[in-house]
Every structure is written in C-alpha cells, then in structure tokens.
Amino acid sequence: MKADRIFVNGYIYTVNNRSEWVEAVAIKGDKIIYAGDEAGARALCDENTDVTDLAGKMMLPGFIDGHCHPVLAAHYLCGVYLQIEWGVEECLAEIRKYVEANPDNETYFGIGYAEWIFDENGPKKELLDAICADKPMMILGSSAHEAWVNSKALELAGITKDTPDPIPGFHYFHRDAEGEPTGHLLEMGTQNMIMEKINFFDRDTIEHVMQEASDGYAAMGVTSTCDMGMQEFGLKVYYETLPEMIDSGIYKQRFFGCGQMVAEKGDEDVVLPRLIEYSRKYDSDKYNIHFLKIINDGTLETRSAALGEPYDEDGSMVQPLFTREKIAEVGLKAAAAGLDINVHGIGDEAISGTLAMAKAIREAGYNDCRITNSHCDYVKDEELGLFGKYDVLANTTCVWHYGNPDMEAVIGDRQNRTFRIRTMIDGGCRMGQGSDFPVDEFGREPLKGIEMGCTRQLFDHPELPVLKPYEEKLSVDDGIRSYTINNAYQMHMDDRLGSIEAGKYADLVILEKNLFDVPLNEIHNIKVCETIMDGKTTYSNY
C-alpha cells in the first residue's frame, strides 16, 4: 500500500499515550497509515505520492472543540452582534444602526452584550422600544443565559404580570415593583416562551451563517465539533439541514451532538426517549448523536450559578435545577441506554450533583459511560479529587481563566479559587476544552485557550491581573491534550481521533511554529497553515 501524501521535516507531536514525537507521517484516503521515522514514510511513496516538506513547522492532531453550539450559533448570529467590551450606549447605537439598515425585517435578533453593564435591575424594554416599538426584538447577553426584549416581543408572546415564571428564581422574568416584566429575561425557559410565539430566524440565512462558522473553524485548525445542545426551535436544522451540509462537504468538521438539552424539570421525559431514537439513527463518525446534556445551573454573571454560599449580604441563594437524587436517576437511565452524559455545572453545588451522579453510575457498573462536567468554575476543595476517582472529564474554557474585576464584583474573593484544573489533573482527571461558541467573548480559536490555560491572563492584555491561584497554571502539553485526545475521549472517539497514530483518521493541523518553542503569551498569534480532515485539506494558508 502506497501513501497519497507524506509529511516530513517538521515537529510532529503525536499526542499518543507515550507523548512521542516522530519524523514523518503518511496518509492514504481518510486514514493515517504510518507515523515514525522518515525512511519508513519514504518507503511508502511512489510516483503519485505528494511529499510535503513541513520546513520546521509543527503538526498536531486536528483540534476538537469539545464544547460549542454551532447550530445555536447559526440562529443567534443571524442578526446584530454586540461586542463584549461595549457599554450600554455603544450597544444601543449598534442596535439602532442594524434596525435602520434592515427596515424590511419583521423581527430583530441579536447577541453579545456584557451582562454586567447594567445595574442590578438589568436591561429595560423601554431602551429597545425607543429604537423599534412596532416589531419584536430580542437581544441575548454574551453568555446566552439572559436576554433583553422590547415591549412588542412581550406583547406578541403574551407575557404579562400574570404570567408565571418557568422556574421561579432560576428561569424567570425580571419584574418591576408592580410585577410587570421589565424586558430582562433570565435563563432559557423564558427565552423559549418568547421564541415559541415569534420566529426570529430565516432558514437560508441560518445555512449561510453555519457555513461561515464552519469555514472559520477550519481556519483555526478545528476538525471536529462537539455540539452541547439546541433548544426546541432549532431541532429541524439540527436533525435535517446539518446532516445534509456534512454529506455535501459544506460543513467541514465532524459533528458530535446531543440534540435538545434537559434544561427544565420534566424535560428528561421528552428528551431522553427522543435522544435514544436519534442515537440509533445517527451513529456515523461524521455525524453522531450520542450523549445527554443536562443543564443543572446558570452562570455566575447572571447570579444563577448554584453556589453553596450566598452571592450577597442579603443571603440570596440559587439551588441546582436537579437534586442529587434526581440527577443520579436521570444519569442512570442514560447510562443504561448506552449514552454518554454532559452536565452544565458552574457553581459548586451543581458540580456536587454531577459527582453524585457519576458515583451512582460507576457503582452501578457503567464504567464505559463518558461523563463530563462542563465549565467547572467553582469546585469544593474536598471534591477536586473526585473527578479522577469517578472518571469525570472536566471540560472548561480557558479563555475565561483570567483576572476579571467584573467577576470579583459578583463573587468577591471566591474568584481567586476558580478554575483549579491543575489540581484536578494531578488527581487523575482528564481536562477537555471548548469555546462555548457563540458565547465565546474573546474568540473560539483553540490556540487562545491553550495560551490562557498556561498564563491565566487575558491575551494581549498584560495590564489585567493573572488569575489566582497561580499554581493552577497549565502546561502547553495540557493545553494540546485538552483540544485533541482528551476531547476525543469525551466523544468516545479516542480510538479513532485525537492522536497521530496509524489506523486513526487523518485529521491534522499544521502550525507555523512549534508551540513548545515560543513565549507563552505569543501562542495565540501562531498562524494555522493547513487543516486536514479525513485526509482532505479544508483550509490552507502557507
């Protein structure tokens, strides 16, 4: 068997379990057929083999975004996009500009404002009414866990002071002293109530945005995406449009997903049977539906993450969506059905629920069920070691690992005990990374995540503080593994993806420089030269 293409004369890091470097790689079709010395690769050449001289560049396994929402992003990015560094007036000016530029739109949608730019009462509907009062408008915050709507949106959705909150204190409408909704929506349950009555999206635009997102991923070296869930309004695109785009090559990454999320009590009764059905229907190595996503709390920015200590002096508390007993019950059902599980857990009480579920699943003998806790912001001291004990992968977004004065205003000194991933790794935990696209305030490039895991400082912002504890800084190797083999493990694909080894898929990325040889704060500037998925080039920029 002769190779279609070989790669020589570069820094080729396999990321295998022996952390080996090799001189050459050979691929044929969609597979790697050789990784070893150059002589061995040359022996696989004939007159038709393409020999690529890496000229000192670095080759890694293709990056895997282990936590993102590309289908949700295709919906969310159909409208106005606000920058996280903007203040209220800048956001309003951009929204006004978008509305004036699109006068024929029947609805207006957007995303991106920083949740902390408003006071404790949040954004007001009157601000949007002044821009557009006769058409519904909905703007999501940068985390997508809150939203801002105008009066027309509330009217058309039938939301009044008599409308009950989906989950009081968690998924709820902010109200004034008379009980009237102010236009500030907390969590997805309230967003769904608006979107069930108002269509903000156009399918042709969604497909175009999704193609742009895929092209962007290819330019970043990403060859696989792990989609962490969609709301009901987008499932038709999820299950019908996206598989067609993958088959035609328009969407250039492998796609691993879960469909609809369990985001409210009772959702599991609908979501789980549907997920089991689709997991049997969609089981290829390019489009695969195979894990259950559970939302167990909110975010720190919106004060909806479940913490064991109050946010404020008034003693306000948020409880996890599920009790430990209930989340264990749901998790056991998923494990028994052969599904993997991913839990959104930011606060320590929510993460305790993930670990209680994992304990129950392991004790029941489901040792092959891949369990992931997403985000992992704030973990109890005594539970850091349980991630390794119960084989729970910690998926985080290292672009959030920096000293943030706005976050200190929300949780105080507790910020200096967030993202203690180094300790978790030392306790036997695997760490994965994801961008959480489209709520990727500083970009979804894996190289940014690799850098900031090492520095705990926002890239290109040396004036901002380094996030404590300093000893929680990660190594470059930790960062590489988090975007390759560890994310492949999360997706139950580590036997086929995530390292450069014979027999695995030819998903590869070529970088201009060796990540181990540049200053840490310059990693994000390294150019992606080529991205290869299934043996085919999806991006090239030498």
| Portion in beta strands | 15-25%
- Rg from C-alpha positions? 23 Å
Query: What structural class should be given to the helix and strand makeup?
Result: alpha/beta
- Would you give the CATH topology of the largest domain? TIM Barrel
Name of the CATH superfamily of the largest domain: Metal-dependent hydrolases
CATH architecture verdict of the largest domain: Alpha-Beta Barrel
CATH class of the largest domain: Alpha Beta
Q: Report the principal-axis shape.
A: globular
Ends: how far apart?
A: 29 Å
Helical segment count: 17
Helix percent band: 25-40%
Largest sheet: 8 strands, mixed
Mean pLDDT: 93
List the helices and strands and how they pair.
Elements: E1 5-13, E2 21-28, E3 31-36, H1 38-42, E4 50-53, E5 58-61, E6 63-68, H2 70-76, E7 80-81, H3 88-101, E8 108-113, H4 125-129, E9 137-141, E10 146-149, H5 151-157, E11 172-175, E12 181-186, H6 188-195, H7 203-219, E13 222-227, H8 235-247, E14 254-257, H9 267-281, E15 287-289, E16 291-295, H10 324-336, E17 340-345, H11 348-363, E18 371-375, H12 386-389, E19 392-396, H13 405-411, H14 421-426, E20 431-433, H15 446-455, H16 476-482, H17 485-490, E21 508-511, E22 528-533, E23 536-540
Parallel strand pairs: 1-4, 1-5, 6-13, 7-8, 8-9, 13-14, 14-15, 16-17, 17-18, 18-19, 19-20
Antiparallel strand pairs: 1-2, 2-3, 5-21, 9-10, 10-12, 11-12, 21-22, 22-23
Helix pairs in contact: 2-7, 10-11, 15-16
